[in-house]
Amino acid sequence: MKKLITILLLTAAIAPARAQYSKDNPRGLADKAFNNKDYYEAAYYYRKAAEGMSLVTQQSIPYSGGGKTAKVKEGKVSDRAYISFQLGESYRGYENYLEAEPWYYRVLEEGNEAQFPLARLWYGVCLRANQHFDEAIKQLTDFNLAYKGDAKYRAVAEKEIMNCRFAKEQYKYPLLIEVTKRKGSWFSDGSDYAMYLKDGMSYFTSSRFAKDEKTHVNRLYMLKNDGSGQPEQVKFKDDAGVKSKDLEYGTPAFTPDGQHLYFTRWFKVGSKSTYAIYTSRKGSDGVWGTPEKLNSNVNAEGFNSIQPFITADGKQMYFVSTKPGGQGGDDIWVADLNGDGTPTNSTNLGSTVNTTQNEQAPYYDVLTKRLVYSSKGFTGLGGFDFFEAFNKDGNWSTPMNMGYPMNSAKDDLYYVPDPADANKFYISSDRESDCCLNLFEAHDKRHTLSGLVIDCDTRKALPGVKVSFVDSLNKQTIYSIVTDKTARYSFNVKTSRPYSLVLEKQGYFTKVLPVPASGGEMQGDTLFNADICLQAFKVDKPIVIKNVLYDYDKATLRPESKEVLNDLITIMKDNPKIKVELAAHTDSKGSDKYNLALSQRRAQACVDYIVSMGIAEDRIYAKGYGESHPIASNKLPNGKDNPVGRQLNRRTEFTVIKVE
């Protein structure tokens, strides 16, 4: 819930302490704030202490600035190391990895790793969060080789190394999803997150500065889905027992009829925050009634429950809780609701969905039985990542990371689809912020690759073709089908990773085609149509290669002839088990001996070009037949010359002579 308590709120909390600030004891104030987990305030005072020691200077830090490290003028070495490490810890405490990174680096650079052995681990984590994956892997590996302390920290390093490797692959070949921050009225000087769409309105949480309040606190707001107008705060009748100015509200969810609103309500007493899920009923006057805390099925005494989500049928509420019976930390739970929206039970979703770390922000589609939620417990890009799992007969599938750019190196939560556009959804993320969640709009450009397989000669639909969707990098088959009588194929393209279609049928040349990265239908052989044709062949039956041209009385290939031969090269690459004879023929002009030699030189010119393009010499050989194998008459019945027949006889052919 770190992102629920915004940095702006923490900034406001510092103000009273600043009035008591002593120039002689910033470290004491920092330590007190740090022990209370007020990391933003701690960073403020540790930085004041660092300034007194001349530590806040332009530093030579990898990925974080340039210049030379200034000489330290004040403070003991141990004090400087302590302040540097604590600054890193404080910045990391509120997930400001950009500011944390150089302070951990200073600890290492100045030789204080023995005093603070975790500095290299957290430096590596910061590098990962700041997307310097190779250097992060190096630092984390070095940490694990040297560290002899608690094994849980080596486990953290191993997980972060896996995250780095996963992230490198994801960033290289992202999902076909476009994610952009929402502008205009959606964006504020605070946090904006956890959108819920209902009846043409968007309800969301924001800590934007409200005119009638003196500090930035989280409240529920509503705004038209099209973004027009200004956000209006959702008001409730007064809560009993706690002053409203001490309360914060977030993560709205509605019953299908829109009469019940569920949300997280929390407040802070001292350094402890208490979270619970409440509901409010809309009165006949349209005003939301006094929030009522849900029963112990959801809100267990002494534990936190947050982030309700109501299913589209209104029968269940998914939520997050630390209550007993979970796997550890924040877990996803589900409760059945009775007719008036009251929870009648609650069930932990189990160890397949939940981990010993934190899971948050569930969304569940009752039609597809698809759960989308955020977790820190699986391999991902870092922070909270989106995962999806499916429920089949009460059992959950293994959660799958939903990839970049839906996920980032920061925190990504609160998935919600747009009911008016199946290819549009919204998320909350701090990927473009050092502190706070913002609302993002995502457009799903993943598409279906589909088309028709036909016979190249007859142009008729070709059933019985095995069509495989193959990863072009690791050569693994993602999915295969065999065409039925319709001869159609269809595959889902999700990422920009290079893929290929492999089409195979006995008696036909195998064909391998790259999958276009853009959306829409498969563009086919020529990239201008959706049909893919397969060429039939029989062993020892010649196939004419049209338009292989030579200059008169020469065996030198013309440029346009090479383009035609490229098709044969493609066939041979796609069919590595075939061996081919490349034959050249002439008409009857000239002597038999001369034509035989000319045809041999022409056939050899073709073979030489094909071999130069990477085809093994033992798979193709040249054969000149001269004028000995005409396929048409060189003369007309009246004895005159037959130019059409001679043209047909001046041909180049290839023949499959063996299939291994």
TrEMBL record:
It holds the Pfam family OmpA. Residues 1-19 form the signal peptide. Keywords: Cell outer membrane, Membrane, Signal. It comes from the Bacteria. The keyword Transmembrane helix does not apply. InterPro entries: 6-blade_b-propeller_TolB-like, Bact_OuterMem_StrucFunc, CarboxyPept-like_regulatory, OMP_bac, OmpA-like, OmpA-like_sf, TPR-like_helical_dom_sf, WD40. Residues 535-660 form the OmpA-like domain. PANTHER family: LIPOPROTEIN YIAD-RELATED, STATOR ELEMENT OF FLAGELLAR MOTOR COMPLEX. Gene3D superfamilies: OmpA-like domain (3.30.1330.60), Tetratricopeptide repeat domain (1.25.40.10), TolB, C-terminal domain (2.120.10.30). It is found in: Cell outer membrane. This is OmpA-like domain-containing protein. The keyword Cell wall biogenesis/degradation does not apply. One of its GO terms (cellular component) is cell outer membrane. It comes from Mucilaginibacter conchicola.
